[in-house]
Amino acid sequence: GVAAALTNHETIDLAKRHLVQPWPCAGEIGAEARSLISGGEGIYITDGEGKRLIDGPAGMWCVNVGHRREELARVMYDQAMQLSYNTPWYTMNEPSAVLAERIAAYAPGDLNHVFFTTGGSTAVESALRFMQFFNNARGRSDKKLILSRGGAYHGSTYLSASLNGRPRDRDWMDGADELVVKLSSPDAFRRPEGMSIAAFSDMLVAEFEETVRRVGADKIGAFIGEPVQASGGVILPPENYLPRIRKICRDNEILFIADEVVTAFGRLGHVFASEDVFGIDPDIITFAKGVTSGYFPLGGMVVSERLLEQLRRSNHPTAMYAHGLTYTSHPVGCAVALTNLDLLEDGILAHTQAVAPYFQQQLKTLEELPLVGEVRGIGLMACVECVADRESKNPLQLDTNVGMRIDAHCHELGLLVRPLINMCVMSPPLVITREQIDDMVGILREGIS
Ligand code: PLP
């Protein structure tokens, strides 16, 4: 963009001829037209026509401190001029060590070591391969199955994608199914008719216990879950469900991996949500996205000291965690993350906590609209779920493309929505003000109406 100065038409045409975009349908692969975005500032992005839009999904739940933060652009430049890259195989750099220390200080319990990756999928992949290695090295090589849930999204690499629980993510794709055991989604909106939320929570816990009994604790290495399922439609865990699952995992030596790729770094008003919001202390936390507010691809996992100590004392001291990425501990990414963390600490976390109740309350008013089945959310993430019929909660059929149609209307009115079939997910940059929330909800109301 900055260098080429093409017209919109030329850019879109080049993309249609040469660019493969994520999640394409076979009939359009390599020839898809998508809205061109040419700029961004604060909570706004600018489309190819120069139209200013509220960035409703903050990119992909990632532009947490907002677009065009000069501090982040400057640190990227300064770090690249100081040291643009070093091999993490046999050298190291200062930004990654300092960032690891700061992340460890925020992580719950004894989670005090960080392994950096290139994003969320590679963070999840690293955590699962760590679990496999951990059990191999301590002579428990039968204990490696992974529990994951309906509605989950954990990534697009082979193993992380194998855990995904939204049907259409798996319909046409292969996966390591033999390694995964699936559990129900904790989606309370679609709980059995007439069941209380408490009974629904009991049902999920009973299913978990029964699965551990049936499959055998000696076969299960890990449970992975998003504290709030993000791409599944902002599915909140029913009260007490996560701590109870956490306890079953501890009792059965099943590693509890909290996938905080979306929920960490401010989305719920805290650096990590596991302990501060949900009262759990996982064995491993994965993160990405907000760690650099999307300015640089970076992710990682925070691992418990207790697990590392077990490895150090294992019977196989030369066994190797043969896992690392060229860009592990990237100095530019880590430097960006340090400045991003400064910005979060210097007011953005506090602002998020202050403004979140207003955000939720205003979006909730959309439940007045006949098309809206439920509005749910926490912190600065929410989902407006549309239904064909409120009684049966029948989701609108895919072919009605309601999400896309709402998105198209809202685009006209100045808001980018990220439609998920029948769901509009709202997770704007955390710097959004009350007035901007009013604008966002006003446009969404009109778009849905
Ligand atoms: N985990 C969760 C919870 C996510 O929401 C995502 C992406 O949306 C991922 C993992 C994968 O992250 P990435 O796209 O950075 O590989």
TrEMBL record:
PROSITE patterns tied to this protein: AA_TRANSFER_CLASS_3 (PS00600)
Obligatory cofactor(s): pyridoxal 5'-phosphate
Native source organism of the sequence: Phyllobacterium bourgognense
Recorded superkingdom: Bacteria
Family assignment from sequence similarity: Belongs to the class-III pyridoxal-phosphate-dependent aminotransferase family.
Pfam families: Aminotran_3 (PF00202)
UniProt cross-references to NCBIfam families, sorted A to Z: PRK07036.1
Sorted UniProt keywords: Aminotransferase, Pyridoxal phosphate, Transferase
Protein name in the entry: Adenosylmethionine-8-amino-7-oxononanoate aminotransferase
InterPro entries: Aminotrans_3, Aminotrans_3_PPA_site, PyrdxlP-dep_Trfase, PyrdxlP-dep_Trfase_major, PyrdxlP-dep_Trfase_small
